[in-house]
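hey can u check if this looks right to u? its 128 residues, i copy pasted from the old doc so theres a chance i mangled smth
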Amino acid sequence: MQSEDWESNVSMAIGVRNGALGLLAVASLLVLAAGSVRASRSRPESLAPQVQLMQPWTVDLNEATSQELQLVPGLGPKLIEAILTHRAERGGFDHLDDLAEISGFKEQRIRALSRYLRIDPSSPRDPD
């Protein structure tokens, strides 16, 4: 009988302890979540440095295929064809600003595309 009481007491103590630990864990998670929400509401700019660290991929204008240029936001089939034609006729690009020689490329568009386009100094370029 005494053994049964002891087992019952141990069982009850374990249940209480597990219940208390469970409540403590839930309360901790709620506190962490509330702090996270409050921090994100009070300082939305805190995420900006993380976003700025992510750099977009770039395409070398002197080596890019039509398929690669299709991945560049803001370049449609006509502009891609014009880039490839200009590159073939002139032997390549020295600077991104050379795009201004192509109809449809204004300063604003070139500036927007500069995030995605580059001229690799090591890329092959035909001398004139």
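The domain at 59-118 is CATH 1.10.150.320 (DNA polymerase; domain 1).
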